[in-house]
Design brief:
The structure holds two protein chains of two kinds. By secondary structure, chain A is α/β, with parallel strands linked by helices. Helix content of chain A is 34%, strand content 18%. Chain A is globular and about 65 Å long. The N terminus and C terminus of chain A are likely disordered. By secondary structure, chain B is an alpha/beta fold. In chain B, 28% of the residues lie in helices and 20% in strands. In chain B, the strands form seven sheets. Chain B has an eight-stranded parallel barrel with strand order 3-4-7-8-9-10-15-16, surrounded by eight helices. Chain B has a four-stranded antiparallel sheet with strand order 5-6-14-11, with no helix packed on it. The longest helix of chain B is centred in the last third of the chain and has 16 residues. Chain B starts with 5 loop residues before the first strand and ends in a 19-residue tail after the last strand. Classes of the chains: A alpha/beta, B alpha/beta. At the A-B interface, helix 3 and helix 9 of A face helix 11 of B.
């Protein structure tokens, strides 16, 4: 069963995957805004479609609980600043979330217009309309800081969780030092999302807006476990919030030779983002001529689609289960398919083929479900490839924060407010156990943790000390590198 | 195929759709286009007396209230009567009537409130071959400051007087166009009839300020920073006009007086409603000014299909058919009971019915059941007010259902009575009879 591979031209080892395969205008077009903003006329009409539901289901479906009918009503009344306030009050990263949230499985899935006419209100696009207007013209500060509390909080990780937590703490009057190991703040917003979803340097503009509230000291290039330790932070600050993300990439589970062309999809995505918005920057990235991405999530889709847009002749997503098992939403899958990506379901990597120090292909085992278990059928096929990207999930790297932190299924074990087992240490975002790995959820973690930290530091809460009281977990470790999904 | 031809005061037209006296009927060019599009008749834009032409503003004459997607819901104007020489208008009227003999040609008039002025112009109109005249006692802006338009229409004695002069001066049918800017529409209608009017037409526009420009802090629209109230029309005024039409239709003094209905007519359904309340023709302006003349084809087609569906061969077959259902509140049957009912298969769970009933009415709709969203009428609280039906975005999801006589209304604990029980006979009414 290797008909697919025989239909493809052989990959040319050494010829490789030249960059600058397209002309600059093509790069600019391919990486322009994937979902262009609504015009004022479109926004006015779309806003009017909102029914202003009672106890609106979309609010419940939003992990940050944005009062969606209110912000849409304010757009309809041409009160964009008020609309932005309603959004950012609940979700300070509302601009980014408007771009990257899988709204089709969140707010827009809950919209009652689905029941009425199979077409929800375009909540994400409207949210972007309102937040874009504010970012373009911030005016006087939307939020101001409460009187100084004299408390200092360390927030580790300037991704969505850490930024939301830092912003929330700053509003409440605390002093925040925000650490991040990378050269830029933003976390996955800056490094982990397809370029066409976040054009015009929006992630950095949003960070600037968040920091403009004051009281947040951003320290970049500072890595936990290398430049400082959790114990040091606990000693030097009144509280610590860990928004560490997932630093590890799952392995394929087969022998992975040290060869050119075998890489992590997240690194490819990050390289592309850092190449900049300009076509000249994009043209410097080499996508591979025949790209195979292993995995079934949004990372796989982002990597495969961007490979195609960079000029790859073929991009194939290989996923070991069927379409319903993919964590990429149907909209994401459709997005891949309409960009010429081939999705091969029911196949798992068996061996990486290499020649002369470069990847030449991948042997894949056909899989199937047998009695509810995923098995290999015994059949195999080969895909020629000069680029194989791993996108089968990421893992929490426990070394940075140290072994004292209690884990559950490989991630940090927290209560509902984000408290860890350690006194005065909270955590949130993808590194926290029990989430769906969504930016919007990370924002909620950070927001809730900020309130919890505030309550504890000021005695305003219920005094529910430092114990991880709501968790019943006893797990302290788990293997890293296990296949997810 | 229904026969849409109408005979109104002896004036024949191929359909009941006339263009009202307004900018669309100001000159031959427009009226030719209107007749080419299929309009049954026109009321030519109001002519004034011989003399220096009227002067209009050279800034915004129109303003509008829009829906979110820029549909015109209400429309306002401060344009005066025709600003073209009388002789030019009369010559064009003559030519148009010659070119379109099957269409109704009524001419609107507004001259100073003197016998000489009216008796000077009416014969000149008659000489054109026009089918009738409409006395403009309605315009509330501009001309009213000069003692014309609604300044006349607000004084029944003047209406009667001028109508009498006109009837004396012509064999043509005389239609009196009424202003709604008055507390009781029956008074001017009675005066028109007493003066010998062959018909009334209504409503003219409602005095209005469209809004305020909150940046410039002026009323809007404004001319050189100042504004003046205009006349309001369009879909927003239809309910006001329908009531006035019905008031005249059911008033003993004016019952049977022919009516040409005006006010917010933009589709066949609007027109059919006016006809059902007794109007022999309908007049349209705003819808044409918003969409152009072609709309008459859709209106005629829709009316024809409606009539075919209901077995009405001519407009006369259903004209006035709904009028007997309009009565005074005191005659409504207080024994009759309805309850709202929510079709759970159609409900999209928006919850609007619940929140408005809970916040503003009778707390008669649930919000949840077993922890799930669930909107259901509580019969023991429902007074049948129709608010939920009104706010529900899904047609036919919430309907009002009568409670059969003999069945206990769980709200009152009493069985619904089958007999007629109006306020006039209600035990709580100190003025009851019998």
């Amino acid at each position: 069963m290797n008909s697919t591979s025989s239909a493809l031209p052989p990959a040319h080892a050494g010829c490789g995957a030249p960059a600058a395969r397209l002309n600059l205008a093509q790069y600019a077009a391919n990486f322009s805004d994937s979902h262009p903003p609504l015009t004022p006329a479109q926004a006015a009409i779309e806003a009017e479609r909102c029914y202003y539901c009672f106890d609106a289901p979309c609010i419940t479906a939003c992990p940050t609980g944005i009062d969606i009918p209110s912000f849409i009503g304010r757009i309809a009344q041409n009160n964009l600043r008020g609309a932005a306030r309603a959004i950012l009050e609940a979700n300070p990263l509302g601009g980014l979330c408007a771009r990257v949230c899988p709204t089709e499985v969140l707010c827009e899935q809950a919209c009652v217009r689905n029941t009425n006419e199979d077409k929800p209100v375009e909540i994400g696009a409207l949210q972007r309309h309102a937040t874009d207007a504010l970012m373009a013209n911030p005016g006087t500060p939307l939020f101001t800081r409460a009187a100084a509390t004299g408390k200092r909080v360390a927030v580790v990780g300037a991704g969505p969780a850490g930024l939301a937590c830092a912003h929330g703490l700053a509003r409440l009057g605390h002093e925040v030092v925000l650490f991040d190991s990378r050269p830029k703040a933003g976390g996955l917003n800056e490094y982990g999302i397809a370029a066409y979803k976040v054009v015009d340097n929006f992630a950095q503009r949003e960070v600037e807006w968040l920091l403009s509230i004051g009281g947040i000291d951003l320290r970049l290039g500072c890595e936990l476990g290398r430049d400082t330790t959790l114990a040091e932070l606990c000693g030097g600050f009144d509280a610590v919030f860990l928004g560490l993300g997932l630093g590890g990439v799952n392995a394929l589970g087969v022998d992975e030779p040290e060869v050119v062309g075998l890489a992590a999809a997240v690194d490819f995505i990050a390289d592309l983002r850092q190449a900049g918005d300009l076509a000249t920057g994009l043209a410097s990235v080499s996508p591979g001529r025949h790209v195979v991405v292993i995995g079934g999530g949004m990372t796989a889709v982002d990597a495969a689609v961007q490979s195609k847009l960079l000029g790859a002749e073929s991009a194939t997503i290989v996923y070991r289960r069927g379409p319903a098992g993919m964590s990429a939403s149907q909209v994401e899958q459709d997005w891949a398919l309409t960009h010429g990506v081939v999705i091969r379901h029911w196949a798992a990597p068996k061996a990486v083929l290499a020649e002369g120090g470069a990847v030449t292909g991948l042997v894949l085992a056909c899989t199937a479900l047998e009695d509810g278990r995923l098995i290999e059928t015994g059949e195999t096929f080969t895909l020629h490839a000069d680029s194989v990207l791993r996108a089968i999930g990421q893992t929490y790297l426990a070394d940075a924060a140290g072994p004292a932190l209690r884990l559950k299924a490989g991630r940090i074990d927290c209560d509902a407010e984000g408290r860890t087992n350690l006194p005065r240490v909270w955590a949130g975002g993808d590194c926290r156990h029990g989430g769906r790995d969504l930016s919007v959820e990370a924002v909620e973690h950070g927001k809730v943790a900020a309130r919890s930290i505030h309550a504890e530091l000021t005695g305003a809460g219920n005094g529910n000390g430092t114990s991880n009281s709501t968790s019943t977990s006893t797990s302290t470790s788990t293997s890293i590198g296990a296949l997810h999904g | 195929m229904a026969d849409l031809r109408t005979r109104f005061l002896g004036i024949l037209s191929p359909n009941p759709f006339w263009l009202a006296s307004a900018p669309p009927t100001d000159k031959a060019y427009n009226v030719n286009r209107a007749f080419e599009a299929g309009w049954g008749g026109v009321v030519w834009k109001t002519l004034g007396e011989e003399g220096p032409p009227i002067v209009n503003v050279s800034g915004p004459r129109y303003g509008a209230m829009h829906s979110a997607d820029r549909r015109v819901i209400g429309f306002n104007n401060i344009e005066l009567i025709t600003d073209r020489p009388l002789a030019v208008n009369l010559e064009e009227i003559r030519q148009i009537k010659r070119d379109w003999p099957d269409r109704a040609m009524v001419v609107s008039l507004m001259v100073p409130c003197t016998e000489a002025a009216w008796k000077a112009i009416v014969p000149r109109v008659q000489d054109t071959g026009a089918d009738g005249i409409e006395l403009n006692f309605g315009c509330p802006h501009g001309m009213s400051e000069r003692g014309m338009g609604s300044a006349v229409g607000q004084v029944p004695e003047y209406i009667q007087m001028v109508t009498e002069w006109c009837k004396q001066a012509t064999r043509m049918p005389v239609i009196v166009k009424l202003t709604p800017n008055i507390s009781d529409i029956r008074q001017p209608a009675r005066a028109a009839k007493a003066g010998g009017a062959d018909a009334v037409s209504l409503i003219n526009t409602v005095s209005s300020i469209m809004g305020v420009d909150l940046e410039r802090m002026t009323m809007s629209p404004a001319i050189a920073g100042m504004g003046s109230h205009g006349g309001y029309c369009g879909p927003a005024v239809k309910p006001i006009a329908l009531n006035m039409v019905a008031e005249i239709g059911r008033d003993a003094a004016t019952r049977g007086l022919p009516i040409s209905g005006i006010g917010g007519i933009g589709n066949w359904r609007d027109a059919a409603e006016y006809i059902a309340l007794g109007c022999g023709t309908v007049q349209v302006c705003t819808a044409a000014m918003v969409y152009g003349f072609k709309i008459v084809q859709d209106m005629a087609d829709g009316l024809s299909n409606y009539m075919d569906t209901h077995g009405y061969a001519t407009v006369e077959d259903f004209r006035g058919k709904a009028l007997p259902t309009v009565t005074d509140w005191q005659h409504l049957n207080l024994n009759y009971t309805e309850k709202a009912h929510i079709d759970q298969d159609l409900c999209i769970q928006c919850g609007r019915c619940h929140v408005v009933c809970e916040d503003t009415s009778h707390q008669a709709i649930t919000a949840s059941k077993n922890g799930q969203r669930w909107f259901e009428i509580k019969d023991d609280e429902c007074v049948g007010c129709n608010l939920c039906t009104t706010v529900c975005p899904v047609p036919q999801c919430i309907t009002m259902r009568p409670v059969a006589p003999g069945v206990v209304d769980t709200r009152t604990g009493q069985a619904v009575r089958a007999d007629y029980g109006p306020w006039t006979a209600h035990p709580n009414n100190p003025m009851r009879v019998g």
